[in-house]
Amino acid sequence: MSVSSEAVPAYGPYAEFALLLLVSALVGAFAVRLRQPVLIAYIVVGILVGPAAFGLVTAHDQIDLLAQVGVTVLLFVVGLKLDLHHVRHIGAVALATGLGQLAFTIAFGFVLILLLGKGMMEALYVAVALTFSSTIIIVKLLSDKRELDSLHGRIAVGFLIVQDVAVVLAMMAMSALRGAEGEALGVLLVSLVGRLVGAAALMYLLMRYVLPRLVAAMARSQELLLVFAIAWGTGLAALGEWAGFSKEAGAFLAGFSLASTSYREAMSARLTGIRDFLLLFFFIDLGAKLDFSTLGGELWPAVALSLFVLIGNPLIVMAIMGYMGYRKRTGFLAGLTVAQISEFSIVFVAMGISLGHIGVEALGLTTLVGLVTITLSTYMILYSQDLYERLAPMLGVFERRHPFRELAVERQGRAAGQPDIIVFGLGRYGSRLLSQLRAAGVNVLGVDFDPEAIRALRRKSLPVRYGDGEDPSFLESLPLAGAAWVVTTFPQWESNRAFLHALRAAGFEGHIAGVVRDDMHGQALGAAGVERVLNPFADAADYAARAFAAELQVRNEKEIHA
C-alpha cells in the first residue's frame, strides 16, 4: 500500500524497529505470564502495528526482508536435521502421509466448499489452499517442545516437506497459466523436469566433492562457520528462487546438503538464537498482512472449513500412519501438525485473484480460516499430551493390533552406539581416555570444538562430534539421556562453570566427572556438584608411588626369604 509523505512517521525506520521490538517484548511477556504461546502474541503485534489497526510501522520492506531471512534460517536448520539416515527410515511414511493428506483434503474440501454455495473455480482454489500446512510454525513449535527429533516430529517434518514441494509445483503451474496458452503446461513440465534433474546433479556434486572440504576449512573458527552457514543458506535460497522453485526450497536443500557433515550440530546450535529472533519478524509480518476487509460475509463458511482442517486433516494422517504400522499416539501427535493452513495458502489464493480466476471473497475466507486454524492448532500442539490422554480411548480404531513398525524399534532395545560415557575436551588426556574406554569395550562418545582434533580421532575410527560444550542448544543434540557419565576435561573453571550450567539446562540427570590441574579447581568442581574429580598429576603420582612401593615390598620379601 502506498503511504503519503504526511502519513510517514517522523522517527524513521530505526525508531520503528525499536518500537516494534519493545511492543513485542511487552506483549510477549504478557502472553508468557498468561501461559499463552508467544507465537500468537507476535501475530497479534503484527495486527496491532499494521495497517489493519494503528498503522504504527511503515517499514514494511525492511520487516519483510528480515522475515524472509528468518524463514531461510529456519528451513536451513530443518534441512540440517534431516540427514540421509532419517530419510531412509521415514521416507515411505512421509510420502504416503503427505500425498494421502493432500488428496483427501482437496477431494473432500472441494465437495464441502461447493455445498457451502461457492463456485467451481473458487472451490478448487480454496480446497488446494487448505492442503498447505505451515512448516515454519510447526517446526518452531516442535523445536520449542524439543520434539523435532522425536519419531512423530521427524515424520511430521517429512510430510510437511512433501507439502512444500506441492506448494512449489502449484505456484509454478499458476505462473504457467498467466498467459493462458495451451502449450504452457507442456513447456512447464519439460522445464520442471530439467530443473529438478539439474538441481539433483548439482547437489550431488557439491555434497560429494566440494562441501566436505569447504566446511572443514570454515570450521577452524566457530564464528566463521556461523557466517558460512547463513551465507550458504541465503545463497541457495536466492538460487532456488532464480531457478523457478522457491527460497524456502533452496534454503532447505542448503541445510540438507550439510546434514551429513560432522559439523551440523554445531551449526544448528549456533543458528538457534538467530532463528528465533528473525522469526519474530515473520510472525509480525504475517499479522500485518492479514486482510480483514473481506471477512464480513465469510464467517460461517470459515467456521465449517476450520473444523474440517482442525479435525479432518489429523484424522487422515492418523488413518494412514495406523495402517502403516504406527501406534495411535504417534499418529495423533503427527496428525496435529496438519491441523492448520499455511501463510502460503493466502499467497496461493491471492495469485488466483491476480489471474482473474476468483474474487476477493475467496481471500477473505482463506484469511479467516488461517487465523482460526493457526491459533487453535498452536494450542493443540502445545498441549498435545493432555489432549491425547483425554482422547486416547476413542483412538483405538487408528491402531493395528500389531503396530509392527514401532514394535520393531522397541525389540532393538537400546539404540546401537548409544554412549554410556561422553567425554568433553579431546586434548591429550581426553583423547587418551576416549581411546582406552573404547578399547575396553565401553560405548563412549568424544566431543571437541577443534576440527583438527576431530579429524585426527575420526581417522582412528573413534566416535567423536564437533561442537561447543558450553552451548545448551548443542548439548540438546547429543544423546545425553542414555549416558551414565559425562566427563569434562576443560582446563579452566570458567569453561566448566558454563558447561555445567548448559548441561543442567539440557536436562542431563546422570553422573559428572571432572579433570583438574590443581586443588582449587577440584574444590570448585566439587562444590558445583561434580561427583568425581580426577587430577592427572596427583593420580599419576599416586599410581607411581603404589607401583614403587609394591615393587620394593616384593624385593624385601625375597631378601628375607633368601
Distance between the termini: 107 Å
**Helix content range:** 55-70%
* CATH fold type of the largest domain: Na+/H+ antiporter like fold
Instruction: Tell me the structural class.
Output: mainly alpha
Largest sheet: 6 strands, parallel
Low-pLDDT runs of 5+ residues are 1-9, 179-183
If you compute it from the alpha carbons, what radius of gyration comes out, rounded to the nearest whole angstrom?
A: 28 Å
Number of strands: 6
Taken from the alpha-carbon principal axes, the silhouette is: elongated
Strand content: under 5%
pLDDT averaged residue by residue: 81
Could you state the order of secondary-structure elements as H and E?
Answer: HHHHHHHHHHHHHHHHHEHEHEHEHEHEH
Strand order of the largest sheet: 3-2-1-4-5-6
Assigned CATH architecture of the largest domain: Up-down Bundle
Count of helical segments?
23
Total domain count: 3
Description of the molecule:
With 562 residues, this protein is mostly helical. It has three domains: 47 residues; 327 residues, Na+/H+ antiporter like fold; 134 residues, NAD(P)-binding Rossmann-like Domain (Rossmann fold, 3-Layer(aba) Sandwich). The protein is 68% helix and 4% strand. It has 23 helices and six strands. It has a six-stranded parallel β-sheet, sandwiched between helices. Helix 3 runs parallel beside helix 10, helix 3 packs antiparallel against helix 11 and helix 12 packs antiparallel against helix 13. The protein is elongated. The N and C termini lie far apart (107 Å). The N terminus is likely disordered.
